[in-house]
From TrEMBL:
Single GO BP term: oligosaccharide catabolic process
Listed name of the protein: Alpha-mannosidase
Domain Glycoside hydrolase family 38 central: 547-626
Superkingdom to which the source organism belongs: Eukaryota
Role, per record: Degrades free oligosaccharides in the vacuole.
Catalytic activity, reaction form: Hydrolysis of terminal, non-reducing alpha-D-mannose residues in alpha-D-mannosides
GO molecular function terms listed in the Swiss-Prot or TrEMBL record: alpha-mannosidase activity; carbohydrate binding; metal ion binding
Coiled-coil positions: none
Organism from which the protein derives: Terfezia boudieri ATCC MYA-4762
Amino acid sequence: MGESSQYPKLNFEPHAAKIQNIALDRLRELTAGGQYSSVNLTSMYVLDRESDSKYVGLSVYSVPNLERPLFDEAIKGEFKPTHKGASFGPSWSTHWFKVVLIVPERFHKYGRVEFHWDANNEGLVYLEDGDPVQGLTGGGERVEWVLPKSFLNGKPHTFYVEMSCNGMFGNPDGDTIQPPSPDRYFDLSTADIVAPNMEARQLNIDFWILGDAAREFPSNSVEMHKALTVATEIMNTFKTGDQESVLACRQIAQKYLGNKINTADVYNSDLRPIVFATGHCHIDCCWLWPFAETKRKVARSWASQVTLMEEYDEHHFTASSAQQYYWLETRYPKLFKRIKAKVHDGKFQYIGGSWVEHDTNMPSGESLVRQFLLGQRYFQSRFGKRCETFWLPDTFGYSPQLPQLCRLAGMTRFLTQKLSWNNINKFPHTTFNWVALDGSQVICHMPPSETYTAMAHFGDVKRSVTQHKTLDSDETSLLVFGYGDGGGGPTAEHIEKLRRCRGMSDTVGLLPRVHMGDSVDDFFSRVEGKIINGIKFPTWYGELYFELHRGTYTTQSNNKKFNRKAEVLMREIEAIATYASIQKKRYQYPKKDIDHLWQLICLCHFHDCLPGSSIAMAYEESDKMYEEVFTMGAKLFEDAAASLGISIIPKLGSRPVAINNEQWPRTEVVRVPKDTVITNKQVAETHNYALVSASGPGIARVVDVKPTSAVSATEVSFGIFVLRNDKLQATVKGGHITSLIDLTCDREIIPQGRKANQFVIFDDKPLYWQAWDVEIYHTESREEIPDGKVTIIEKGPLRAALTVETKISSTSWIKTTISLAASTAGAGSYIEFDNEIEWDENMKFLKVEFPVDIYNTEAAYETQYGIIRRPTHYNTTWDAAKFEVCCHKWADLSEHGYGVSILNDCKYGFATSGNLMRLSLIRAPKAPDPNADIGRHKFRYAILPHRGGVTEEVVRTARDFNSPMQVSYVGQGYDDKLASLVRLNGAPGIILDTVKRGEDDKDIKGEEVLKDRAGRSVVLRLYESLGGKASTIITSSLFVKEVWKTNLLEDDLESVDLMKAGANTTFKITLRPFEVATFRLLLG
Ligand SMILES: [Zn+2]
């Protein structure tokens, strides 16, 4: 053999093995800017460019007063000549450009001619007829619009560019989350006709992905070395300015990327993909920009996507939030029509089923229901089908009831990824069954690339396996790519990169095989199929607690207060309007107005609004929305009440009453105006007090206070005050409760030597995200606020009260009214704290403490339709991470037989550490709103000692505390029909939470009419509040024909057997622990 071998005998040509790091470093030289740009590929991207005013005629209308007119109005403005290089501003202003373009003849030979526009801010190109076609994001990111072929004829063509003087992330002054600069100006640096060198552009992307393979594949892999060899060959082949060499280089790239990467055909292989990429664009409804700007961001972002779909057959795009579609529909009808067509083609995929991508920590149960009801009804009415996947990639933690509510809203899947931001523990699953408090489950997927704004990098595809935590069950995953947060979405570059990734997987392997073209629902359907076929996935029970952004339970506290008050108000409006519409022929149920108010409330649930993480401008807008809710809401309530003969103001011969909107007996002290004639009253400074009592739902009447239940306030020795009724005795010194005795149990609540209602202040300097985060170390800076000055203001017999004036600092103070009401039979007594605060601090956190003589390793917190139990200790890092948690109307620490609840009327942040209960009151972050929470606030909280653990007493008292009975007036002959409309008789844990009219009732048409349903119906939503299977008998004086158990969308699911039909209809229901159940009573 040796004799005949071709192997040369002699070698006089030395060849060095590759020095790997140098060979890798060299790859930068082909496409980098800077010193190589005149001699590398970047010098070849443009074949020709023209910006002379002969060809690009520019005139501008600068809109006054930071207004944002729509196209039809804007083009009526006075346009004045302008030029490339001119400067436009200030921040948030709008400038409309009329562009008259003549494409010079020398460009007509090119297959593709583009218009490039870059002012380093956001823009939108409109055709002459007002159709928006291309979003522009500036800063080199998305600057081109491909000119229609019809423009290449040497004639003038007109189009418009709407310039918004803000970037994708608003107008930050340096650091992104710092308050926006009001005075930014933007130079129009580019307004050019450009003939691009498409092959040079494509080679750039070939080489990018090839280089990534060389850099990111394991250095001991064959695939890495092959990538480096091919990339080096390209570098050695490329000759600056030589188009033939570009084509040759692209041929070389195919050795690694395959020969199908120039079209969508690359995805047509029979090799099984495991990473499913979907284009997406996360558009925050407000954040570092106002809501008003978002309305335009939606148009810019989605216009670009529709245009991109024309060019890329595989491009599929997913967008959530019915509100954003609704904005588009009403403001940009032409674009909406084109999107509708793409929805029809399956390319533009609506998702989420909710009105916006909302917070899920703080909205009430009914608020979450309305997100789905408004969202699903909108999608169904516009596109014919509901969503199957709930989509919240960016929200700050997830309520344990979401799986139940999703299932009840017709969705079986859930996508998020925010838990990848946890800064203590790593969440252990990628795809799993997430189980609600009642046992309902959804499939949850958290894309392993750990982002919803992937740039479709090689690394994103790679991490889809390397960071996948559920490979034992299923190796598939979603890759969600495209510019986001401030809008944008995928670019051509992203789609081209994914083609190369796929080509590479099919040619050399190793990289997970990515696919484009399936929908998110296709992905979930396959996973669902696997589960149905017996493949087990991990389970996660209870809340998906987010280990970051814990300050969002407290920041922008007025916004949170408005939310709570709006939720309470809507419940009252819907109930009374329902009764009025059934009872009074002339009263029309205000369905459109109610829908409108819920739309406003749901918009404000957006995950940067309610959590408090937006700029000041956004809160000016949300304050206006809430103002509308309260003004219109009050009117709706008054109208409905008036139709039933109940008046908010006294009339001649009327008597004062109150409405009990709950199912249990209530006796409460109410405020009555001075001029109301009333015998049994306690006189106070600006008003009187009366005791009203109702044995159940309906009208509460004024009653006498019994001497045994009277309350007193006394100064027992200098500076020591005692409030007492026959159930509680509180000793107050300097504004602190030094003793609280439950007289019925002979039990002291406050540990020896400790002080309850102690205000404490903390340094509040998180690691970065000021408005968002309070960090674990803040407790180390605890400082007690000194004693305040105490004065008795009310001495009974109905209410006894002290005021405490406390100085927090040289700039802040708090005035607290500590009160105790006369005790009432069958109901618990609590000490109430009604606060007015003037707050002006810098990065401080005010809380109030209640040390209690109770021992338990778990505390309980109210959440939507249920209870979350969380540790009071820090055994593990998972426990310690919950140092600040979200509660709704109450938090409770109970041991066997006895407990203490802290109630609140508008707060959400809480911490229970050992036996110390701490309610979070107010923060002072300086970014992104430098004045967040500075100023005057009012809020109430209370301490409720009680027998047993969490029982109906806690749940009911907290509800009553949040909607105290209000005095109103009826005539002498008033017949109270409210009392018998709906009555519950059974397990006390079942709460009747919502009474409303049926969405599709023919007589009350609202915004979305989906189906005409004959007859009138009343919808009752109930839930089991304590965590145990429970039954109740429901009786109604309405003439009921049929009762249906429905889902949240009011689809009839099962017929309910009536024990008695017709007048005084009676039926029995049984609920699982923490089940939410909706019933539709079809009236005869
Ligand atoms: Zn977001």
